[in-house]
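Mods, move this if it's the wrong board.
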Amino acid sequence: MREVVLLGSTGSIGTQAVDVIRRNPGKFRVVGLSAGRNVELLCQQAKELNPDFVAVSDPELALDVAAELSIPVLRGDEGVSELAGKGVHTVLNGITGAAGLLPTLAALEAGSQLALANKESLVIGGPVVKAAATPGQIVPVDSEHSAIAQALRSGTHGEVRRIILTASGGPFRGYSKERLRAVTVQDALRHPTWNMGRVVTINSATLVNKGLELIEAGYLFDVPLKDIVIAVHPQSVVHSMVEFYDGSTIAQASPPDMRLPIALGLGWPERVEDAVPPVDWTKANDWHFEPLDTEVFPAPDLARQVGEKGGSWPAVYNAANEIAVDAFCAGDIRFDQIVETVAECVAAYTQPNGPTTVASVLAADEWARTLASELVEAKAGE
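Not the wrong board. Structure tokens:
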């Protein structure tokens, strides 16, 4: 039985991971759970799964959990990192945003296999995370990166010519720039194929999420960003592809259900039987692919630019986006001003000299949040 810790257990990834574990009794034992503010669900999960520890990033809410449960409750961001560093076999990091970086490093330093759904860990701290990880220690959980990892089993790294990162195109595929000005938060949260949390859903609508995945893929698979292309695939059945130098392209296909890459991340390198229903090949299936409209959706190209610069540039991209997304959801800025704000922060940034460290990444993150907050305040009501 494999011992696991689930970070962000009350979020979209975490609740689906709990479902995978629930449907595979005897395969996994949950040692720890962590959550941010949804402590009611956290307590329900703890009573069902009987972990040894829980962690709550909000210190005040941790007191409420401690009164409800009879197990140790770790408090604050430090408590989440402590839980990640317990040294269990597998840590699933399903935390959203830059807050996932320190728990990622804690899990790696403790020697755990890291099932990584928190793409921001690699996006903002790529050099630091890569230096902390041993070969094969990080197992990708994003559906696209899981697909790439599976396809790469078909050949050696030296045989890879390109990676094709697929994108659904989000709810606004085919829109013009002018039409994007009028979309609402409710419009942006209506993803056509995936059921995800608020931030990831908005990021998928702006295509910022694809930009983050582009940077993450470069770090995960040691492929230059110029050799990663994006193809829009609205059906979200082909999750990504690897093109080899002989002209062969290997694709991974399955219905759009995150339980498959989650199950593979928890069980890696073994597959979990019947993680999701497969494609029904007795019925007609139409799969469509088209190029990304980079003029209407410039976020992936901007991500490619900051990814090629490296260092703490991607941290600026990510932090500015997190602030802008919150501002959009609060009704302070328009949808099209999210990426506009990110681009302005990137244009204003000057990376300091010296190596990339946790401190330099967090400093860039803080700088970008400050500037982005000022920018969205100035944009409010435009």
